[in-house]
Amino acid sequence: MSKARWLSLLAFLLMFVLVTGCSSKQSSSKHSSPKTEQKKTVKKTKPTKKTLATELKDSPKKTLVYSPLGDSLSVGLLADSKENRFSSQFTRTIAKETGKKVTEEGASSVGKTATNFGLPNVNTIIAQKPDIITVEFGTNDAADVTNPKALPAYQNSIHQILDQLQSQTKAKIILMTTWSPSNGDYVQNDLRFDKVVIKEGKDRNLPVVNLSKIWQGNPNVTGSTNNTSYNVWGSKDDFHPNQAGHDQIAKALTKVLNQEIK
After folding, report:
1. For the chain, what is the domain count?
2. For residue 197, what are the domain limits?
3. Is residue 99 one of the residues assigned to a domain?
4. Which CDD domains does this UniProt record tie to the protein (predicted)?
5. Per-residue pLDDT tens for 79-109?
6. Is the torsion defined by CA of 92, 250, 110, 142 positive or negative?
7. Which of 102, 140, 162, 248 has a CA between 20 and 30 Å from the CA of residue 182?
8. Is there a contact between 250 and 93 (Cβ–Cβ < 8 Å)?
């Protein structure tokens, strides 16, 4: 074989080796490349905020009972109608927030105190098998300004009321402080009695609606001298919450109903 043919054959073989090697490398590269896995995005669901409303909603009971225990505020003076007193507004709010039927029962009376009405009527509330209770006393208790035993008596009565309600019911309990006009005669004494309620709330981990945040410095939420008030309640004065006052109380209760329990 001539030298030229040898060179041509050698060139051909060299080219063949190069092409084959390159092709093999590409094939190997294709097979060896790792598969790209698609990452699945898992959406984290926010845990449901635990509130009085959610706990009442989760109750197995189809019908809930709300029992306000208190004095003339809980009776409803001086709302424009009984249907629009704070307790009745709050009843409708509980129904809306829980999607359940709610009946309003309770025990309240004009001019009464924790000692002469609240404590003797605890068993009335217990017998109603309530799911939620508001305890509202102190306004008339604090009016007994010349009696040095009034504050200790109130403190003892509120303590006993809550002891019995907590031990003999499974109800959610909301405490409420005293009511007064912004320029009332007993404002300073009211605030002393409020401290009792606030302390009980803190010690027992119970929510407190501080009504002084509504009436202090706000003369527009107290008193009604119109005929509507007289026709509904048989009285009119410049002391009790008017409709605006009842609306504000109901709003404050709704806030507690929906605030997170920690």
Report:
1. 1
2. 63-258
3. yes
4. SGNH_hydrolase
5. 999 999 999 999 999 999 999 999 999 999 9
6. positive
7. 162
8. yes
